[in-house]
């Protein structure tokens, strides 16, 4: 694992942890990063093949001050899916 990667704006960001999830049609990349000011954030990147061996990517960042609410709502949505309780 690399300690640093280049972000979209070509500034160095410290990667604290990363993992990859592969499904049949999508790949998900999860990276926990630390910004220059020391705050942590999660980057979720979904890639999928869009034909002609080209890939499309959707990326989102969840910042440290938002992660607990995101986690709470995400758990609620997963529970609805798993329990089929609408």
Question: Can you put this structure into words, describing what you see?
Answer:
The protein has 86 residues and is α+β, with helices and mostly antiparallel strands. It has a single domain, classed as Nuclear Transport Factor 2, Chain: A. 20% of the residues lie in helices and 52% in strands. It has 1 helix and 5 strands. The protein has one helix at residues 67-83, and strands at 4-6, 12-22, 26-34, 40-51, 54-63. A 5-stranded antiparallel β-sheet has the order 1-2-3-4-5, with no helix packed on it. It starts with a strand and ends with a helix.
- For the record, the count of structural domains works out to 1
**What does the average pLDDT come to?**
87
**CATH C-level category:** Alpha Beta
Beta strand count: 5
Number of helices: 1
CA-atom Rg in angstroms = 15 Å
**Beta-strand content:** over 45%
Instruction: State the CATH topology.
Output: Nuclear Transport Factor 2, Chain: A
Major sheet strand order? 1-2-3-4-5
Report the major sheet. 5 strands, antiparallel
Helical content (DSSP H or I, runs of 4+) = 10-25%
Q: What string, H for helix and E for strand, traces the elements in order? A: EEEEEH
Query: Spans of 5+ residues with little confidence (pLDDT < 50)?
Result: 1-6
Which overall shape is indicated by the principal axes computed on the Cα atoms?
flat
Name some characteristics of this structure.
single chain, 86 residues, alpha+beta, Nuclear Transport Factor 2, Chain: A, five-stranded antiparallel sheet, 1 helix, 20% helix, flat
């Amino acid at each position: 694992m690399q300690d640093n990667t280049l972000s979209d704006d070509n500034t160095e960001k410290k990667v604290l942890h990363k993992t990859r999830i592969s499904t049949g049609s999508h790949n998900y990349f999860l990276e926990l990063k630390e910004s220059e000011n020391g705050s942590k954030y999660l980057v979720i990147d979904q890639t999928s093949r869009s034909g002609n061996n080209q890939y499309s990517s959707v990326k989102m960042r969840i910042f440290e001050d938002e992660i607990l609410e995101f986690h709470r709502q995400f758990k609620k949505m997963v529970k609805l899916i798993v329990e089929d309780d609408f």
